Amino acid sequence: KNTSLIAFDYTCNLANPDDGVVNSGPYAILPRKGAIQPGCEESFIIKFSPVDAEESFERLLVVGIPALGPETKPLVIEVDGSSERPVCHFELPPSKYREKKEKDMAPIDGKYSIIEFESLGTRVKNVRRFMVVNPTSQGYDLSLIHICRCRRAI
After folding, report:
1. Quick one: the chain helix, strand, coil %, rounded to 5?
2. What is the C-alpha to C-alpha distance for residues 129 and 135, in angstroms, rounded to an integer?
3. Alpha-carbon torsion 114, 125, 134, 149, what sign?
4. What's the rounded Cα separation, in Å, for the pair 62 and 77?
């Protein structure tokens, strides 16, 4: 709140905490600049919209108020966020498995995707191809490992 008798201008910038360079990264602040009238207050909205998975989204919100003079340090607020983004995305063809098995078994949660295999007999190699999409900006290798959770009699 502006408790003074005069209006004051302000500017907001988001800076990298490591080097102080203005870089908003995945953040946006509204309003970025303006003036607060005497006896009034201003609400600010910081939007966080990451487009990639990163280890740190730390930034410094620096609010400059020129009327305070050069000896007064600007208001600095640390901001940080985290993103939940899949490391990989499986592009699977649509399946009618849920509808076909609806009567025979408990419902399967819609968050699970199903890959159906049609077998032509025993000791026949069954192959199903699907795409694995890397939504990040970094390359990686992917391998699938079979984990047997079956209980065998010894």
Report:
1. 5, 25, 70
2. 19
3. positive
4. 7
Q: What is the pLDDT of residue 63?
A: 94
Instruction: Round to whole Å and give the CA distance between 11 and 65.
Output: 7
pLDDT for 154 beyond 70: no
Q: What's the pLDDT tens digit per position in 67-125?
A: 888 888 889 999 999 887 667 777 888 888 888 877 777 777 877 788 877 777 788 88
**Strand runs (DSSP E) across 1-154, as ranges?**
8-15, 27-30, 33-36, 45-48, 59-64, 75-79, 89-91, 131-133
pTM of the complete model: 0.56
Alpha-carbon gap, residue 143 to 132, rounded angstroms: 11
Closest to 137 measured CA to CA, from 48, 55, 54, 59: 54
What's residue 149's pLDDT? 65
In sequence order, what are the residues at sequence separation of 6 or more whose Cβ sits closer than 8 angstroms to the Cβ of residue 88?
132, 133, 134, 135, 142
Name which of 133, 145, 146 is nearest 87 in CA terms: 133
